[in-house]
Amino acid sequence: MVGVRLFSNLTSRSRDIYNSISKELLSSAIRKDLQKLHSLVITFGLHNSLFFSGNLISKYSQFKDPNSCLLVFRSHSSKRNAYLWNTIIRAMTRNGFYARALEFYAEMRRLEVKPDNYTFPSVINACGSLLDFEKGRVVHEHAMELGLESDLFISNALIDMYSRCNELGLAREVFDGMPHRDIVSWNSLISGYTSNGYSKEALEIYNQPRMDGFVPDSFSFSSVLLACGGLGEVERYDVIVSNGFLSMYFKFDMLANCKRIFDEMVHRDKVTWNTIICGYCESGLYEESIGLFLETVSHFEPDILTITSVLRACTYVGNLKLGRYVHDYMVRNGYECDTLASNIIINMYAKCGDLLRSREMFENMGSHDLVSWNSLLSGYVENRSYHEAVELFRRMKINFQPDFFTYVTLLSICAELIDINFTEELHCDIIKQGFGSTQMVGNALVDAYAKRGKMEDSLKQFENMEFRDTVTWNSIIASCGHSYNSNLGFSMLSRMRVEGGTPDIPTVLSALPLCSYLIAKQQGKEMHGAIYRLGFESNIPIGNALIEMYSNTDTIISSYGMYGEGRKALEAFEFMEAAGILPDHVVFVAIIYACSHSGLVQEGRACFEQMKKNYNLEPRLEHYACVVDLLSRSGLLTEAEEFIVSMPLKPDASIWGVLLSACRASGNMNIAERVSEHLDMPRGHSERLAIAFGLLHTKPGYSFGGNEESSGLWGLPHVTKYISKIMHREILVRDANRFHLFKNGTCSCRDHW
């Protein structure tokens, strides 16, 4: 099958042949396919290619076919390349032919083919598997002669080989001499001590490597469990064993077991306290970590990892006072503050709001790394010190290369900056540094341009992105909301679904305000239905957003009323009813007011009647006032007067004032006189009515005034000034101190009241 497919795809060019076979070879997973490919390699004369020979040997080795491995190796014409020897030695070792692997190594040296760092791990592994200490020691010397003894993989193989041969002194010597170690290094040494019966030493090593940032894996834990078992029942609660269990349980996030072991320990040492404090911090139990530190710091000396863990805990809980104490403790006790520790301190001060000490720590560092710059920069941004953040960024660019985190942090503050061109400056830097295609940066640019009011640039960035994730769509939809472009927002929401985007909770939260802006009845219903389909109906922020969307209706009804759009106000009211939201007293004031300012008398009266009939709401004085205004504005003054007289509530001055103002506008003196009988003018309890009454009973262009008995009328001198200007009247008033003449918006007293 493989051959047919290859022949059908091959062209006359050798490059096409080479590429086709190599692709099939690397992906082959069946032994029969591999054999067919081997035939093709021979057919096309590629059997002397190092690439094909090496890969064929490796593949046959995976299928446990050492004979085919040998066949490929022997058929290769050249034996002078270390790659081919490395491949066959590794194949023999993998298939358990350790002696044969050593024979190939000996032949390789006889032919004076120089071994490299890929040769020795397999050869050393073969020696260890044969428990051949002498040959292993010789191979070690060969590696040293070539200057390869510090290679990580060779060193790990040597530790394992010496451990198997019960030469733990040499294994520890190799381990201690390693410039760098990984998980395999630690596991090899721990396993070596455990398998040779040195259980206590194995546990001591296990508890030691925290300083190297060692993270145990399942193999580490299996070795530790064996070591614990090897100590015997008598030493069951030995501090070393308990420390081992503590560390193991923390790595498996078994916090209850950790607490039980810790509480049952009769004796605790430095390792115990360091392990429990760091473990609690890494598990997110910051308060517990801090509490244990304060409890024990007086009688044990924490290591630097414990100190930095407590500083991290202070950062997360925002405990600046304790953070300062821990930092001062470090200084007093002479702890070496390396770059990592300094960065943690900078971050702690910045996150806790002490930017002065954060900056001081930063400036006192011998050398900075990327984390140093970003920690201080992030602190400035979080504490809204945007000017300092920009200054630090410009300084950073001179001394250090910012990363994408730097740019994302700064993009989030562009809308707050006075410099309107800073967004473009960042964008240019991002492109120059090759971060333009980074998803996170692209999303941040979309958001930054939109918040800056540059919607066209935001859309351009959005369209230029090769890949759009959910965050991208959420950013552009939210941007449409910021720019009050609801139509575009709904269009983007539709595109998201068409292009296979998956809406999440932030998507819905970004889209719901669009419905409020438009009073888009259909879109609002669709969004509400989509929320149920997506299973987000129980989400509290979404529930709040839905309530806000529907409750915004009364505000928008009022807005429509102010602009005489009564029909649209009624549509919004119907939308609210259809959504199942019960209107309250405020909504009915808004809708009757809107009808009043649009001449919709019948509709307004119908809304008034609905209050009690449909919603069991008792009309208040403000609702009656709106109906009076509705009738009065339409010239139905007699009906308005009858409505007031028939009210179940006693009408106040504001209701009579509405009718009085309408009488003045229409010149209906008869009704105005009757209205005046209901007003207690001498008591001056309504400045507005007094002014209206004065304007009504004097001819245009004439002055009118009030005396000190009606001084309540003039409790708002600034309003009176405006009335004199708007109505082109002179208003003379006497208060307890002097006479005041209001004329053309000014007072004769020059505002000395």
From TrEMBL:
<dbReference type="GO" id="GO:0008270">
    <property type="term" value="F:zinc ion binding"/>
</dbReference>
<dbReference type="Pfam" id="PF01535">
    <property type="entry name" value="PPR"/>
</dbReference>
<feature type="repeat" description="PPR">
    <location>
        <begin position="81"/>
        <end position="115"/>
    </location>
</feature>
<dbReference type="GO" id="GO:0003723">
    <property type="term" value="F:RNA binding"/>
</dbReference>
<dbReference type="InterPro" id="IPR011990">
    <property type="entry name" value="TPR-like_helical_dom_sf"/>
</dbReference>
<feature type="repeat" description="PPR">
    <location>
        <begin position="469"/>
        <end position="503"/>
    </location>
</feature>
<dbReference type="InterPro" id="IPR002885">
    <property type="entry name" value="PPR_rpt"/>
</dbReference>
<dbReference type="Pfam" id="PF14432">
    <property type="entry name" value="DYW_deaminase"/>
</dbReference>
<comment type="similarity">
    <text>Belongs to the PPR family. PCMP-H subfamily.</text>
</comment>
<keyword id="KW-0677">Repeat</keyword>
<dbReference type="InterPro" id="IPR032867">
    <property type="entry name" value="DYW_dom"/>
</dbReference>
<feature type="repeat" description="PPR">
    <location>
        <begin position="182"/>
        <end position="216"/>
    </location>
</feature>
<dbReference type="Pfam" id="PF13812">
    <property type="entry name" value="PPR_3"/>
</dbReference>
<dbReference type="GO" id="GO:0099402">
    <property type="term" value="P:plant organ development"/>
</dbReference>
<dbReference type="GO" id="GO:0009451">
    <property type="term" value="P:RNA modification"/>
</dbReference>
<feature type="repeat" description="PPR">
    <location>
        <begin position="369"/>
        <end position="399"/>
    </location>
</feature>
<dbReference type="InterPro" id="IPR046960">
    <property type="entry name" value="PPR_At4g14850-like_plant"/>
</dbReference>
<feature type="domain" description="DYW">
    <location>
        <begin position="677"/>
        <end position="753"/>
    </location>
</feature>
<dbReference type="Pfam" id="PF13041">
    <property type="entry name" value="PPR_2"/>
</dbReference>
<feature type="repeat" description="PPR">
    <location>
        <begin position="269"/>
        <end position="299"/>
    </location>
</feature>
<protein>
    <recommendedName>
        <fullName>DYW domain-containing protein</fullName>
    </recommendedName>
</protein>
